[in-house]
């Protein structure tokens, strides 16, 4: 943040491979696309385009949130309007939200130390 003066906040992110365009929801026991990306004849159709046509996506990983006090007070959020994405390698994305995360993290830390 100190080097990135034009930004009012920073969050750590990790690149993801999952695509919202390929995600589904169940409605009335039927599969429905999550996004209405592909529409034909006024109906959302189920289509699976190549992943090569999509731009990279990132997800916030809750490892670091940093923001200027002025931004926090103005937006009432730790993510401001000019947020810098600090990209982390997936091997360092060790989030402990659920009990099963502990074993995954312990394995990853052992691997990193080797």
- Give the DSSP E fraction (strand runs of 2 or more residues): 25-35%
Order of helices and strands: EEEEEEHEH
Radius of gyration: 19 Å
Number of strands: 7
**Which strands sit side by side, in order, in the main sheet?**
6-1-7
Mean pLDDT: 84
The amount of helix comes to: 10-25%
What oligomeric state best describes the polypeptide chains here?
single chain
Main beta sheet: 3 strands, mixed
Given the structure, what is the number of helices?
A: 2
The low-confidence parts are: none
Termini separation:
31 Å
Shape: extended
Query: Structural class, judged by helices and strands?
Result: alpha+beta
Describe this structure in words.
With 114 residues, the protein is α+β, with helices and mostly antiparallel strands. It has a domain at 24-53. The protein has 2 helices and 7 strands. It has helices at 69-75, 99-113; strands at residues 9-16, 24-27, 30-33, 39-40, 43-44, 57-67, 83-87. The strands form 3 sheets. A 3-stranded mixed sheet has the order 6-1-7. Strand 4 (39-40) and strand 5 (43-44) form a beta hairpin.
Q: Which helices and strands occur, and which strands form pairs?
A:
Blueprint: E1 9-16, E2 24-27, E3 30-33, E4 39-40, E5 43-44, E6 57-67, H1 69-75, E7 83-87, H2 99-113
Parallel strand pairs: 1-7
Antiparallel strand pairs: 1-6, 2-3, 4-5
Features:
two-stranded antiparallel sheet; single chain; 114 residues; 3-stranded mixed beta sheet; alpha+beta
């Amino acid at each position: 943040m100190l080097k990135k003066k034009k930004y009012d906040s920073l969050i750590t992110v990790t690149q993801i491979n999952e695509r919202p365009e390929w995600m589904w929801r169940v409605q009335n026991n039927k599969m429905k696309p999550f996004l209405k990306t592909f529409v034909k004849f006024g109906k959302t159709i189920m289509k699976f385009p190549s992943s090569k046509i999509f731009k990279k996506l990132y997800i916030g990983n809750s490892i670091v949130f940093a923001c200027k006090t002025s931004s926090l007070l103005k937006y009432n959020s730790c993510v401001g309007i000019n947020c810098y994405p600090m990209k982390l390698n997936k091997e360092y994305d060790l989030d402990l939200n659920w009990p099963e995360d502990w074993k995954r993290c312990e394995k990853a830390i052992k691997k990193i130390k080797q």
